[in-house]
């Protein structure tokens, strides 16, 4: 979509305003297949993937693997029927230091299941379990799980 506003002289001012508002709303909406919730857009995987592949797919869309889930995000996720899904949190770079993939910032209050993470060097990626109310376990990154890409509304190229 063009960022420029075109004024049609045949339209009343009110019509022009309405038309520009519609264009703006289209810019702020989520693209096809992505699900809107509050200020974000979500893409739910159809097939499972390793953590690295999931990350690449999300990054290619300018998004990142879902991280901490709000209660509303958890409700949305529940509708998808996943048993487990990746969370964009790893200690790949430094064992025991979990960081958010999207920002590289350290996870201080991760939503870990009690006793997790506990896999040491063999388990460097976080997985949310439905049966644990989507709390996290650490898991080997080369396993394949479902995943959700998340992106802020209005950041898509038109
Ligand atoms: Ca680890």
Structure description:
The chain has 2 domains: 1-30; 31-152, Mannose-Binding Protein A, Chain A, CATH 3.10.100.10. The chain has 3 helices and 8 strands; from the N terminus they run H-E-E-H-E-H-E-E-E-E-E. The chain has a 4-stranded antiparallel sheet, sandwiched between helices. The chain has a 4-stranded antiparallel sheet with strand order 5-4-6-7, covered by helices on one side. The radius of gyration is 19 Å and the shape is elongated. A hairpin with a 2-residue loop joins strand 1 and strand 2. The chain has helices spanning 13-28, 51-60, 71-78, and strands at residues 35-37, 40-44, 64-65, 84-90, 99-100, 125-129, 135-139, 148-152. With 158 residues, the protein is of the alpha+beta class. The model has no long low-confidence stretch (mean pLDDT 89). The protein starts with 12 loop residues before the first helix and ends in a 6-residue tail after the last strand. The structure holds calcium ion. Calcium ion (CA) binds next to loops.
Helices and strands in order:
Elements: H1 13-28, E1 35-37, E2 40-44, H2 51-60, E3 64-65, H3 71-78, E4 84-90, E5 99-100, E6 125-129, E7 135-139, E8 148-152
Antiparallel strand pairs: 1-2, 2-8, 3-8, 4-5, 4-6, 6-7
Bound molecules: calcium ion.
Please tell me the total number of domains: 2
Give the ordered list of helices and strands: HEEHEHEEEEE
Low-confidence stretches: none
- Class derived from helix and strand content: alpha+beta
Percent of residues in helices: 10-25%
**Rg computed from alpha carbons, rounded to a whole number of angstroms:** 19 Å
- Give the number of DSSP strands: 8
Oligomeric state of the chains? single chain
Name the overall outline: elongated
Mean pLDDT: 89
Cα distance, first to last residue? 5 Å
The major pleated sheet works out as: 4 strands, antiparallel
Bound compounds, each kind once, are:
calcium ion
CATH class of the largest domain: Alpha Beta
The CATH topology of the largest domain corresponds to: Mannose-Binding Protein A, Chain A
Strand order of the largest sheet: 1-2-8-3
**Which band does the percent of strand residues land in?**
15-25%
CATH architecture of the largest domain: Roll
The CATH superfamily of the largest domain is Mannose-Binding Protein A, subunit A
Helical run tally: 3
């Amino acid at each position: 979509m063009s960022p420029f506003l075109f004024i049609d002289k045949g339209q009343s001012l009110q019509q022009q305003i309405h038309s520009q508002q519609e264009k703006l709303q289209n810019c702020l909406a989520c693209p096809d297949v992505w699900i809107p919730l509050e200020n974000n857009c979500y893409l739910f995987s159809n097939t499972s993937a390793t953590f690295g592949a999931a990350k690449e797919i999300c990054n290619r869309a300018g998004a990142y693997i879902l991280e901490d889930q709000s209660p509303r995000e958890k409700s949305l996720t529940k509708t998808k029927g996943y048993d487990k899904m990746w969370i964009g949190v790893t200690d790949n770079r430094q064992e025991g230091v979990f960081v958010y993939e999207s920002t590289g910032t350290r996870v201080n209050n991760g939503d870990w299941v009690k006793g997790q993470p506990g896999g040491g060097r063999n388990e460097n990626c976080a997985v949310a379990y439905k049966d644990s109310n989507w709390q996290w376990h650490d898991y080997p990154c080369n396993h394949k799980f479902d995943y959700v890409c998340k992106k802020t509304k209005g950041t898509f190229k038109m």
